[in-house]
Amino acid sequence: MILLLSKIFIKDRENTSSPQVRKAYGMLCGGMGIALNILLFAGKFLAGFLSNSIAITADAFNNLSDAGSSLITLVGFQMAGQKPDPHHPFGHGRIEYLSGLFVSVALSWPLNSFNPLWIKSFIHSPLYSTHLLSLSFLYLSRSRFIWLTTIKISAKKSTALP
Question: Among 16, 20, 49, 89, fewest CB within 10 Å belongs to which?
Fold first, then answer.
């Protein structure tokens, strides 16, 4: 779909090294992400409301957070496309990467901010073993991510040329 839309909306779409083309791709993908995620949110929210399903309604709000991520991406590409000025003689291109970093931190924030009251409510819940299993899987997946990131960084350092 992006290929079709890029043929229509992006001039010189093959020249991806051009900052204008990169900005156009970012704006197109960000706009499409916002539009499609809002449509998905509306449809899933309606389906969750009509079926009285908490799971579908929660998935709808996940799509709404994805729309927010796309909005941040869109703003990042817009700001990165600004012309150089006296305060930024090399341009604003790094904002594109900072907006991606902001999205990743914002999406991982709930994983890093466990409230002790949640843990206490899990322990006193009748489904304690299920909650404990879920927390264990969450801990293992985060540990695996940190371990793989460490391996990637050490591999880059060991293969770097002097």
Answer: 89
